[in-house]
UniProtKB/TrEMBL annotation:
The keyword Signal applies. Residues 35-263 form the Solute-binding protein family 3/N-terminal domain. Belongs to the bacterial solute-binding protein 3 family. It comes from Shewanella xiamenensis. Keywords: Signal. Pfam families: SBP_bac_3 (PF00497). The lineage of its organism: Bacteria, Pseudomonadati, Pseudomonadota, Gammaproteobacteria, Alteromonadales. This is Transporter substrate-binding domain-containing protein. The keyword DNA repair does not apply. InterPro entries: Solute-binding_3/MltF_N. Transmembrane segments: none annotated.
């Protein structure tokens, strides 16, 4: 009698132990994948320097925020540095779960799931002081194109600067090269978010350049919000959005986001990451 019950008992064990209930898939191992711009976007993401030499280790505001979000709840993840257009494409098709440090426009709001805003930057333009009259003024940022070549980064979104797509923009691949393009007179102006310039110059060891540069806020532009863009095809999109937004709100309420930003600015301009003690 007992022998005839063994197959039935074994079958019941298989049924009871099988992950057929709703939500059981969430218990299986998985690794989230995030991407950032490979040419660096300091202080939000950049490569650590050792004795002035660039390593493959990522650091920055974004990197710390991801760690504070997912490490305490035991979720594995990795951060990949990719060309920005590839980063966005891979998130859109679902091979990567989300992109960090992205501005928003109508198309991106359609293509991705944006997180809540987790920092704000100031759309600005830069030029060499010696090249223009101190009273130089424009009422519309597109007017810059009448005075000389305007440069920006390939794949970056300048909609919130007020820049129109039909206005000529010379695109280069690396933010760190923009100041150099001015010095070599390959650009008259460059477009950038004001708050990232200090970190960019620190990484480039461009100690004297800030004194030579003039910067002005783009006319009629407001501070620009930046987001995590989550893939609509990610199997974990709800989890990512919920946990990331929850962490951002908590850190906002405790004024920890500004502290984190200032930490990385100081680290870049006065710490080991730039391989020098002064800018």
């Amino acid at each position: 009698m007992m022998r005839s019950l063994y197959p039935l008992i074994a079958l019941l064990c298989v049924i009871l132990l099988s992950p057929v209930t709703y939500g059981a898939d969430e218990l299986s191992p998985f690794r989230l994948r995030f991407c950032v711009e490979e040419t660096e976007y300091p202080p939000f993401n950049y490569f650590v320097r050792q004795d002035g030499i660039k390593t493959s280790t990522l650091s920055g505001y974004d990197i710390d925020l991801l760690e504070r979000t997912f490490k305490p709840i035991g979720i594995d993840y990795e951060v990949l540095a990719l060309p920005w257009l590839r980063c966005l494409k891979d998130v859109q098709n679902g091979s990567i779960d989300a992109a960090m440090s992205a501005s928003l426009n109508r198309q991106r709001a359609t293509d991705y799931i944006p997180s809540i805003a987790y920092y704000y930057l100031t759309p600005s333009y830069f030029y060499l002081k010696a090249e223009l009259d101190p009273l130089f003024h424009i009422d519309d940022i597109n007017q810059l194109a009448h005075f000389g070549k305007v440069c920006g980064i390939k794949g970056f979104n300048y909609d919130n600067f007020g820049w129109r797509k039909e206005t000529p923009l010379s695109e280069i691949h690396s933010l760190g090269h923009l100041p150099e393009m001015l010095l070599k007179q390959r650009c008259k102006f460059f477009l950038a978010r004001k708050e990232i310039l200090a970190g960019t110059l620190a990484l480039a060891h461009a100690a004297q350049l800030p004194q030579a540069l003039a910067s002005k806020i783009s006319p009629n532009a407001q501070q620009e919000a930046f987001y995590m863009l989550i893939s609509k095809h990610s199997a974990h999109k709800e989890l990512i959005a919920h946990e990331f937004n929850r962490q951002v709100k908590t850190m906002q309420e405790n004024h920890q986001l500004e502290t984190l930003y200032q930490f990385h600015i100081q680290k870049l301009t006065h710490g080991d990451d730039k391989g020098s003690n002064s800018l």
